[in-house]
Write a sequence for this structure.
């Protein structure tokens, strides 16, 4: 099955492109996708180890066990922590 992966900052810099088209086996899950990304783009191993991405399929955040479907669009987003800088 064909999956489109969109890499957000800073992940895409490790690969050199924002969008990837990957062929995965039928029945693949998000964990399988991440394994393929690690194998094809070793620089992402360091990125994902230091800052694991939030993974979205469509507009829904998913887990590694989430199944993927042919034509699926996956977005890997760098988690950003926010908060107030104001002293309480």
């Amino acid at each position: 099955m064909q999956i489109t992966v969109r890499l957000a900052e800073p992940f895409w810099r490790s690969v050199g492109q924002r969008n990837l088209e990957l062929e995965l086996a039928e029945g693949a899950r998000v964990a399988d996708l991440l394994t393929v990304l690690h194998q094809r783009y070793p620089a992402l191993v360091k990125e994902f180890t230091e800052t694991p991405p939030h993974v979205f399929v469509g507009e829904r955040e998913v887990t590694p066990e989430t199944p993927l479907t042919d034509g699926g669009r996956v977005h890997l987003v760098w988690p950003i922590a926010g908060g107030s800088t104001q002293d309480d």
User: Anything to note?
Assistant: The chain is about 25% helix and 25% strand. Helices lie at 11-15, 30-40, 43-50.
